[in-house]
Design goal:
Chain B: InterPro entries: DUF2849. Chain B: This is Sulfite reductase. Chain B: It holds the Pfam family DUF2849. The structure holds two protein chains of two kinds. By secondary structure, chain A is α+β, with helices and mostly antiparallel strands. Chain A has four domains: 6-110, 2-Layer Sandwich (Alpha-Beta Plaits), CATH 3.30.70; 134-290, Sulfite Reductase Hemoprotein, domain 1 (2-Layer Sandwich), CATH 3.30.413.10; 303-395, Alpha-Beta Complex (Sulfite Reductase Hemoprotein, domain 2); 410-554, 2-Layer Sandwich (Sulfite Reductase Hemoprotein, domain 1). In chain A, 39% of the residues lie in helices and 18% in strands. Chain A has 19 helices and 21 strands. In chain A, α3 runs antiparallel to α4, α14 crosses α16 and α16 packs across α18 (539-545). The longest helix of chain A has 22 residues, at 6-27. By secondary structure, chain B is an alpha+beta fold. Chain B has helices at residues 41-52, 78-85, 94-97; strands at 8-14, 20-23, 28-29, 58-67, 74-75. Chain B has a five-stranded antiparallel β-sheet. In chain B, a hairpin with a 5-residue loop joins β1 and β2 (20-23). The radius of gyration of chain B is 13 Å and the shape is globular. The chains are: A alpha+beta, B alpha+beta. Chains A and B meet through α14 of A and α2 of B.
Amino acid sequence: MYTYTDFDAAFVAERNRQFRAQVERRIDGSLTEDEFKPLRLMNGLYLQLHAYMLRVAIPYGTLSSRQMDQLAYLAEKWDKGYGHFTTRQNIQYNWPELRDVPDMLDALGEVQMHAIQTSGNTIRNVTADHFAGAAADEVADPRPVAELVRQWSTDHPEFQSMPRKFKVAVTGAENDRAVIRAHDIGLRIVERDGVIGYEVLVGGGLGRTPMIGKVIHDFLPEEDLLPYLESIVSVWNQIGRRDNKYKARIKITVHEVGLDEIRRLVEERFALVKPLFTGVDQDHFARIKAQFEAPDFVKKSVGPFNQAYNDDPVFRAWADTNLTAHRAEGYSIVSISLKAHGATPGDATAEQMRVMADLARQYGHDELRISHEQNVILPHVHRADLPAIHAKLKEHGLATANINLISDIIACPGMDYCALATARSIPIAQEIATRFDDLKLEHDIGELKIKISGCINACGHHHVGHIGILGLDRAGVENYQITLGGDHTQTAAIGERAGPGFSADAIVPAIERLVDAYLEHRTEKSETFLQTYRRLGMAPFKAALYPESKAVAAE
Amino acid sequence: MPKPYTPKVVTANHLLAGDVIYQTRDGWSRKLADAEVLTDEAHADLRLIEAAQQTGEVVGAYLADVDTSKGVPAPAHFREAFRAKGPSNYAHGKQTELN
């Protein structure tokens, strides 16, 4: 893992010192709220419905045990004993008091973490594949690239006051687990004839105007990465629209100006920018890469795994659902579900955080990851240790066997916490999960991604859910629109709206009808919901959602 | 006849704690039931200006509609209901702290 240099540590400490003084000046009246607001947002501090909210970056989703322990400490000391992991690999604390926030930031600094650029019109936390460095299908570990981009973008003087926020995601595998096609810039590490380069996508994003990213460069040489990124952001920073915040994101610029013209402008800019990069960045990149060496994988018998797998059906169900192939022999990637049926997706208590930190320390080469799907990953676990890990997870409500199933739902905080929300998200997720758990159907249904947003900004990624749910305020009442056929992977697609929305009481029965229609129409168990939808289109699902209109049409 | 004025309260977030507060006749309360109900538009606008001037205590003051049909002010919109009570995903926040 990356360790701060003296420069990094001094930079974060100085920012924290400045923010402490800014908070003091706000409290003593020297700063007005209008003056203070941009300063607090630069440091990840929002004011939400019920309280302040501190958003802490977990760069590319990677944490050490010590860092996870410290997140637990913050939750216990300055919050209500829990934290909320988000779709951008951040953790949010929902209840800090203003006076405590500087202490929280200092405590984060102790473990080389911060909340800088988790808000505002800046380049945000750089996200990556949560299986990075462990996945069997990986060309190269995306985290050194993400760390390089993080360092380049942090406090970059040209990019502190942009038309809008800017999000970058990186993957090192063909199978896209980082939703790179829904980011302002998506990077995929590719290999051609033994040479590493990048496929660069631009102009993806969800929100009000969802767009799938387009390839602006299909094989960017490794050494050109930063100058090329700088050129893209620079071109957009200059021509991106500042007159209308809903048209400010680069996806709109690419859409309005055209990909070819953007590419031409970027290349023009690149010719000027490239000579300024003297190679220092590449020397630095080499030093960063050296810090992401793979752990020393051990070789031992997988006997204990096989025995538990044969003897314990609960363990077997969990192993079948929550494990992913690892690149090292005898190892697995463990996904710990933060989606216990009826719980808030992405929430973990301080105790649960400590349990996961201990497991990583004892069995997982000291590494944890946060996935954009709001789960926690132990990326490097020997299969022999899985029965012990599962037993410990079970004791703490963390052994739910539902990864990629209908109850593994992404849900934004929605109107239970968020000041921008137009409806609640979490209770809908809780009800769907509880309902399908009662029906004991979810393993039979198989892979099904439900993603819920409580407003049009789409933090809950509803556009790319196989079933997307968008909560709106219709004349003072919560109303939920359904989209179908979205996909967040390398075959990314924006879901199609099914029709009129449903009330909060009617949305769960509507989802149940959709699932029944899928079970009725799938050719065999291995055909997933998304495959069935792609084969048959909207019609049978629409008929299931709106039985009355079907009856009318038949008359 | 002019349209009847929907009763309102002045609400904001507390600067230090961040939590939801309501303007009373002589200060602020964390309970909506304690809020001063404003039934006259000009008076409401004046009370909002007074609230917004208290920048050392409150953030983001605004007028929120209330329902007074049961004698005490109650939220007129579901957003205000969550602000008054706390999150609905499980019981924490105001709903467990105010009683």
